[in-house]
Structures are given as C-alpha cells and as structure tokens.
Amino acid sequence: MANLVPYIYFANSGHEAVALYKDAFGGDAEVHAEGERVVHLDFRAGDIHFMGRDLEGDEAGPRGGEGYGLVLKCDSEPQLRAFYAQLVEGGTEVFAPVDGGSGAIVAHGIDRFGVTWMLNYDQP
Questions:
Q1: Domain ranges of the chain
Q2: Cα separation of 49 and 54, whole Å?
Q3: Per-position DSSP letters for 20-56, written without gaps between them
Q4: Which fold has domain 64-124?
Q5: Quick check: 50 and 59 in contact, CB under 8 A?
C-alpha cells in the first residue's frame, strides 16, 4: 500500500530541528549535510516518519505554519502531553491539551522552527 510522508523545509535550522525531534520522539535521523546545511533528512521514530531539508539561500519555500500542519496521533494522554511540552518549548502554544469532545484529547502548537503540530489522542 502507498503511504504519504510529509516533507518539511527549514530556514537553515535543520540540525537544531533534528535535535528537538530526537529529544521529543526518540528514533533515528538519517542526515546528509553540506557544511552546516541539511540537504536531506529522513526521520523515523516508530510510526512517525517525515523527511526534510534546509532551504538554500534565497530559495522560496513555505513559511512556518503557512498552508500545512502535521497531525500526530498519540498512543496515550501522557504521551500527548509530553510531546506537546517538548514541541512548544521555544515555540508558540496555540492551545494546551484539552478535551476536544467525543472522547478525544487535542492540542495545537507551533515549534520554534515554524512547524505546526496538531496532537490527538482518542480515549478508549
């Protein structure tokens, strides 16, 4: 079956972003770099998988949070709260974990690299 893998662009902060995501999610990151610039990132932690790279010089690319966001479906409420705390540190807290109705705990934040994260845990 085909699958969709998000691709994230960083404004010359790819190495820092990798460090944040490894701290938050664990996992491994395959990073190809030219000097300080990440030219390819392949990040995997369990079922979490995304790719990315730093933008080059004046290269146009999506600005943080414009037109995209990542939904992270969590396995438990404590996991959601832990991921959320790490992702919004130094970023923007849109709303902290709340009961989203119909048994779901939801949260929304933007990390310090401009990536929008929507977290969800469907309670049993």
A1: 1-57, 64-124
A2: 17
A3: HHHHHH--EEEEEEETTEEEEEEEEETTEEEEEEEPP
A4: 2,3-Dihydroxybiphenyl 1,2-Dioxygenase; domain 1 (3.10.180)
A5: no
Q: Is the pTM of this model over 0.90?
A: no
Burial class (CB in 10 A: 0-12, 13-18, 19+), 76: exposed
pLDDT string in tens for the chain (124-residue length): 778 899 998 988 999 999 999 999 999 999 999 999 999 999 999 999 999 999 887 775 666 555 578 999 999 999 999 999 999 999 999 999 999 888 899 999 999 998 999 999 998 8
User: How far is the C-alpha of 56 from the C-alpha of 54, rounded, in Å?
Assistant: 6
Span 1-57 CATH architecture: Roll (3.10)
The size of the chain, in residues, is: 124
